[in-house]
Input
Amino acid sequence: MSSAVLCQSSSCINGNPPSRMECPTCNKVGIRGSFFCGQECFKAGWKTHKLVHDFVKNPTSLVNVGKSVDSYNPFPDYNFTGTVRPVYPLSPKRSIPEHIPRPEYAITGEPVSELNEGGAAPRILNVTEIEKMRMACRLSREVLDTAAAHVRPGITTDELDEVVHNATIERNAYPSPLNYRGFPKSVCTSVNEVICHGIPDQRILQEGDIVNIDVSLFYDGYHGDVNGSYPVGKIDEESEKLIRTTRESLDAAIKICRPGALLRDIGKTIEPVARANGCAVVRTYTGHGIHELFHCAPTNVPHYAKNKAIGTMKTGMVFTIEPMLNLGTNWSLVHWPDDWTATTVDGKRSAQFEETLLITDTGVEVLTGKVPEREM
Ligand SMILES: [Zn+2]
Ligand SMILES: [Zn+2]
Output
């Protein structure tokens, strides 16, 4: 399948997410199979012209290139496990309007209350707190769905960050990842072999990629947290199966949630679904409690079988389940030198889905679920 090729001239696109075949600046229609959108764009930059020629000769040359010809890989000596590369410079830090309340780490980067929580028991939220969680989670889902609607070949992960950032502040909410332990952006975007915590940068999403978008936001004192993995254009069957299996494993885990169920049985439910479909379950990162604190007790909600998590689900508890599944049998991971981006060790792809859940008297409410699910 050959996809619509968008004008990639930095002087044309100039930060606008391309949504059509026409160049958004000069409004000329691109010639299929090339990056030219017309004389004016061509004239605008010789460096871009050179890039176009390189692309025509070798269509994979742009796989890890951003929209600016001045983009670069900040870790040229790092031994990458797959084909995805960071494409810097990162865009400048996005600002938050004055009137939006911030979580405590917004300035210093340190989530002090989380660090002081120690081995506290999971909190049971009261009716008022639950109502606030519902709202924060509903807004998180809206923002995730907004970002997902922008996924297409030609958009950069930094542009997805901009979409998330703007959709979040429009709702008078703060994007929870921004400056959390120093994270530089408003959302995590994890492409192909990146398992989680990818930093949005200038890399252009390519037809055939998969991307996870992990949205969390802080509204009226409470955090919501939700993520999903999405195909970029047409993807191969293996990647489709990975995404489907990951979603199925999360849904199976949600089904066992009710008062009295054991936290450790979540992993016992997820891992067989993964294994039966040729996937391994990541162990290093787990689900977590969430309310006024972004990450809190229960601090460890493992997604793998035979885990030793202690604790029983109780009415009024809120936590996330967010399985990360790798293609193949290797569940381990490595980090890029940015200390955030976690990738598979063998370069195989990884997918993730996450929901924030409330344990109720009768079972479970998916606080971040799509609206029809929530009303069931
Ligand atoms: Zn998340
Ligand atoms: Zn989470």
Remarks:
- DSSP finds ten helices and 15 strands in the chain.
- The pocket of zinc ion (ligand 1) is lined by residues 214, 216, 225, 227, 322, 354 (CB under 6 Å).
- The two ends are 39 Å apart (CA to CA).
